Amino acid sequence: MATTNDLKNGIVLNIDGQLWTVTSFQHVKPGKGGAFVRTTLKNVLSGKVVDKTFNAGIKVETANVDRSEMTYLYNDGVDYVFMDPHSYDQVSVSPETVGDAAGYMLENSTVTLARHEGEPLYVELPASVELTIAHTDPGVQGDRSTGGNKPAELETGATVQVPLFIESGEKIRVDPRDGRYLGRVK
Question: Which domains does the chain show, CATH number per domain?
Answer without folding.
Answer: 11-63 (2.30.30.30), 65-124 (2.40.50.140), 129-184 (2.40.50.140)
